[in-house]
Amino acid sequence: MTASDSFAAFLRDQLAPLGRVTMRRMFGKTGVFCDGVMLGMVTEDTFYVRVDAHNRATFKEAESAPPLNYEKKGSTIDLAFWRVPERLIDEPDELVLWARAALAAARRVAAKRQRAAPRRKPKPRPS
């Protein structure tokens, strides 16, 4: 389920210190982007942020909740998005710190994908 309009507006306001925050529906959820990089997802008005090996320790508190996941061919696939603790909704400064760490992880993932993408050979031009 996607983010409600009120929750989406709340997140945009809270995360504004990071940069231009936008949201778009994807995979039945809402992707949260900052300056074009996806730092989180929302489902059922619950905010999940991007986690990687570099920032996992920062999000140790979030480990108590299962990561965002989906079912595929009878298996549960965990995504690299962890649920932020509910207390952060009432602590905007700390929410921004978590979101900043998630944004850094999202940028690392995006950079790694760009490096790993196969380069296309230019098509030969007809003579």
Question: How would you describe this structure to a colleague?
Answer:
By secondary structure, the protein is α+β, with helices and mostly antiparallel strands. It has a 5-stranded antiparallel β-sheet. The chain has 2 helices and 7 strands. It is globular. The chain has one domain (5-116): Yope Regulator, Chain: A, CATH 3.30.1460.30.
Topology (elements, then pairings):
Layout: H1 5-15, E1 21-26, E2 29-34, E3 37-43, E4 46-50, E5 69-72, E6 75-78, E7 81-83, H2 92-116
Organism: Vineibacter terrae
Domain TfoX N-terminal: 13-106
Pfam families: TfoX_N (PF04993)
Head-to-tail CA distance between termini: 53 Å
CATH architecture: 2-Layer Sandwich
Which stretches are poorly predicted, pLDDT < 50 over at least 5 residues? none
Mean of pLDDT: 86
Q: Which class best fits the helix and strand makeup?
A: alpha+beta
Number of helices: 2
* Strand portion: 25-35%
Counting structural domains, the number is 1
Q: Given the C-alpha coordinates, what overall shape results?
A: globular
* Main beta sheet strand tally, sense and closure: 5 strands, antiparallel
Listing every helix as H and every strand as E from the N terminus to the C terminus, the arrangement reads HEEEEEEEH
By CATH, the topology is Yope Regulator, Chain: A
What share of the residues lie within helices? 25-40%
CATH class bucket: Alpha Beta
Order of strands across the main sheet: 1-2-3-4-7
CATH H level, superfamily name:
YgaC/TfoX-N like chaperone
Number of DSSP strand runs: 7
